[in-house]
Amino acid sequence: MTPLVPLLAALNVLLVGVWVGMYLFTTSVVSPAFTELFPDAATRTANRRLVGRYYARVNGPLTLLLLATVLALGVTRGFGGALLAEFALLLLIGGLVALHVRRGQAQARPPAWITNLTLAASALLCAFAVVASA
């Protein structure tokens, strides 16, 4: 085992924690606050889009770094079941985020099922990241 593996494993768990933390904060704090701060749907939607653009500037590179870390772990240590599950969940979450953005552009707010499924996948992502990094 290369000495890089423990560092990659720790980075994997850290990045998953940051990613999920950002998502939880946005879902649990920012979105409800916007509903109270901006009762007008058009103003709320405009502000959501603005925050979304800033969010994407951080979340995009973070997600790419997480994906690269998972792939690096797989290459250096092998793709076990937990790491493959984590990779699959990252792909699922990426698709859900894309759907969230697409639906959010068409409506004032994306459907709740997208958010709920992303939250569930994020919880599983945390679990698999810990198992894969052990």
Q: Quickly count the domains.
A: 1
Average pLDDT metric? 90
Helix residue percentage: over 70%
State the secondary-structure class.
Answer: mainly alpha
- Uncertain ranges: none
Distance between the first and last residues' Cα: 13 Å
- Largest sheet data: none
Radius of gyration: 16 Å
User: Approximately how much beta-strand content do the residues carry?
Assistant: under 5%
Could you give the count of β-strands? 0
Shape: elongated
H/E element sequence:
HHHH
> How many helical elements?
4
Q: Could you walk me through the main structural features you see in this protein, from its secondary elements to its overall organization?
A:
- The structure is a single chain.
- The chain is mainly α and 134 residues long.
- It has one domain.
- 89% of the residues lie in helices and 0% in strands.
- It contains four helices and no strands.
- It has helices spanning 4-37, 41-77, 81-106, 112-133.
- The longest helix is centred in the middle third of the chain and has 37 residues, at 41-77.
- The protein starts with a helix and ends with a helix.
- The mean pLDDT is 90.
Secondary-structure blueprint:
Layout: H1 4-37, H2 41-77, H3 81-106, H4 112-133
